[in-house]
Automatic annotation (TrEMBL):
The keyword Methyltransferase applies. Residues 46-158 form the Methyltransferase type domain. GO terms for biological process: methylation. This is Trans-aconitate 3-methyltransferase. Pfam families: Methyltransf_12. It comes from Pichia kluyveri. InterPro entries: Diverse_substrate_MTase, Methyltransf_12, SAM-dependent_MTases_sf. One of its GO terms (molecular function) is methyltransferase activity. It comes from the Eukaryota.
Length: 337
């Protein structure tokens, strides 16, 4: 069981301190789906590992705008919100109810408690868009991809992504690159390597899969290009080593095998997750990790406080200091053949 499923897990703090995704990123997904030229009155969406509704809360306002635009036929949105954790689903329901209150005639939401690989919607080949954010590392990649493939309509979109490990890129008021290097080294040591710290509290193989920026699941999807999936695009950013890797199986103007003209433009920075925050806010985010939850349940001092003290000692960082961090990120979008 993941820590997110525990009754004592604070899903409200999770909503407060976790990074969210930009509206521009979701618009990019909808552009890939072709929502601008939507021909149907309805759309079916599935969110896998929804957590407290992080993605759906961003998606609903975009869809409300499309529905209100009288030039598009879209009238009905059905969203399946799924997660393994009931604690998360309860929080998702509270959050989502608030944003659909004024549009109940357009939105139908169904909550499903299930592992991602075994989601049973009682209907196959009905879903237009599946999103799975920051959860694919908990799943068996092969089984999950097969299950998603079954649920999607032909040409339906699977979009998944993840982020991990904040990289210190600036400490306001300081140009000392060495402070950044020490802060990043200390982070790595405290969170993964140092004995008796957080390393042993990570649930495996999930954490390693996420740290590898979804190498395994991406390879399975990419190996099935042309067979099960098409027009797959993938992007990984690692600000620590300054590396960006991209794969774009779509030349942006050909009519491809499916006879459709694609106007999709590839962007490598659309999932750049850069945040300006105080060091204290970063420590609050650290407390939303499943590993911190386990650590905090068995220690008197919160792990985030311990890490705070360490960075104060090593690089003089105070809780009130303003910092800039960038997460390592990965996204993959693909369409069902
Ligand atoms: C880090 S949260 C991500 C929540 C949200 N999608 C976001 O992007 O913030 C991971 C979510 O995956 C869920 N989860 C963990 N294992 C799962 C599984 N086997 N199947 C489905 N969901 C799972 C957790 O309960 C948690 O809500």
């Amino acid at each position: 069981m993941s820590a997110f499923s525990a009754n004592t897990f604070n899903s409200h703090d999770y909503s407060l301190y976790r990074p969210s995704y930009s509206t521009e990123f979701f618009q990019y997904i909808f552009q890939y789906l072709g929502l601008n030229e939507w021909k149907s009155e309805s759309i079916n969406i599935l969110d896998v590992g929804s957590g407290p509704g992080t993605c759906i809360l961003k998606i609903i306002p975009i869809l409300k705008e499309v529905i209100n635009n009288k030039e598009t036929p879209l009238k009905k949105v059905k969203i399946f919100v799924s997660d393994l954790s009931n604690t998360m689903l309860n929080e998702a329901k509270i959050n989502i109810d608030k944003v659909i209150r004024d549009s109940l005639e357009s939105f139908e939401i169904e909550y499903i408690q299930s592992g991602g690989e075994t989601i049973d919607l009682k209907i196959n080949e009905q879903i237009d868009l599946i999103i799975a954010a920051e959860c694919v590392h908990w799943l068996n990649s092969e089984k999950w991809l097969d299950c998603m493939h079954k649920l999607l309509k032909k040409d339906g979109v699977l979009a998944y992504w993840g982020y991990v490990d904040p990289v210190f890129t600036k400490i306001e008021g300081s140009d000392d690159k060495n402070r950044l290097k020490i802060a990043n080294d200390e982070y790595n040591s405290f969170v993964y390597e140092e004995k008796g710290k957080l390393g042993e509290y990570w649930q495996q193989p999930g954490r390693s899969k996420l740290r590898a920026l979804y190498k395994e699941v991406n390879e399975i999807a990419l190996n099935n290009e042309g067979d099960k999936w098409y027009e797959t695009i993938m992007c990984r950013r690692d600000p620590l080593i300054g590396e960006i890797e991209t794969i774009f199986n779509n030349d942006g103007n050909s009519d491809g095998d499916n006879g459709k003209v694609s106007r999709f433009e590839f962007k490598d920075d659309v999932l750049k997750m850069e945040m300006r925050l105080t060091f204290e806010q970063l420590l609050n985010y650290m407390d939303t990790w499943s590993s911190s939850f386990k650590w905090n349940s068995s220690h008197e001092e919160k792990v985030s406080l311990l890490f705070g003290k360490k960075l104060e000692e090593k690089v003089g960082l105070k809780k009130s200091d303003d910092i800039v961090i960038e997460m390592k990120t990965v996204y993959l979008f693909t369409k069902k053949v």
